[in-house]
UniProtKB/TrEMBL annotation:
GO cellular component entries: chromatin; cytoplasm; histone deacetylase complex
Primary localization: cytoplasm
InterPro entries: JmjC_dom, LSDs-like
Stated name of the protein: Lysine-specific demethylase
Species annotation: Centropus unirufus
Domain JmjC: 1-158
E.C. numbers: 1.14.11.65
GO biological process, one term: methylation
PANTHER family given in the database record: JMJC DOMAIN-CONTAINING HISTONE DEMETHYLATION PROTEIN, LYSINE-SPECIFIC DEMETHYLASE 3A
Keyword vocabulary terms for this entry: Cytoplasm, Iron, Metal-binding, Methyltransferase, Nucleus, Transferase
Domain writeup: The JmjC domain and the C6-type zinc-finger are required for the demethylation activity. Leu-Xaa-Xaa-Leu-Leu (LXXLL) motifs are known to mediate the association with nuclear receptors.
Length: 198
């Protein structure tokens, strides 16, 4: 989070931000960062374990059906990013499916790492409540430990409609694997003579 702008002269703004942070199920230490340390919050994240993805997908489809919405085969309730799980939906997800995530408030200067395949949502102050404007820099990367999840995500994207924003292979996992292996083989060949010595 590289910038959080707090407008001057707005009455009760801090109380509304505090209420949003509390309603977001943030822990006491996070609340103290805002109330006592006076740090600037920019975004509220909810991050879930990758192993719970199918349960969350099933839950979102169920809620959509209850509200009379369609669930087209070539769309995905997680990748569509059309849902925000508010407090009541998060509570229901936990009660009905046993799924509970982590609430993280990203303050100015904080970095949030999201593991590959972990469903997540961010509630940005400026976009939702017009409280604080913020700028965050996002960088996607593929670590060797999470190649499996990244490859799995790429496969999921293939089944989305051709007009879907996530249909294209943004991660380029096959290219990453190819170049990683190519570099490893190159290093082994360059050091082949020293490796064969007893």
């Amino acid at each position: 989070m590289v910038y959080v702008g707090i407008p001057k002269g707005q009455v009760n703004q801090e109380e509304e931000v505090l209420r949003t942070i509390q309603d977001g199920d943030s822990d006491e230490l996070t609340i103290k960062r805002f109330t006592e340390s006076r740090e600037k919050p920019g975004a509220l994240w909810h991050i879930y374990a990758a192993k719970d993805t199918e349960k969350i997908r099933e839950f979102l489809k169920k809620v959509a059906e209850e509200q009379g919405q369609e669930n087209p085969v070539d769309h995905d309730p997680i990748h569509d990013q059309s849902w925000y799980l508010d407090r009541s939906l998060r509570k229901r997800l936990h009660q009905e499916y046993g799924v509970q995530g982590w609430a993280i408030v990203q303050f100015l200067g904080d970095v949030v790492f999201i593991p590959a395949g972990a469903p997540h949502q961010a509630r940005t102050r400026g976009a939702v409540h017009n409280l604080y404007s913020c700028i965050k820099v996002a960088e996607d990367f593929v670590s060797p430990e999470h190649v499996k999840h990244c490859f799995w995500l790429t496969q999921e994207f293939r089944y989305l409609s051709h007009t879907h924003t996530n249909h294209e292979d943004k991660l380029q996992v096959k290219n990453v694997i190819y170049h990683a292996v190519k570099d490893a083989v190159g290093i082994l060949r360059a050091n082949e003579s020293s490796l064969s010595r007893p």
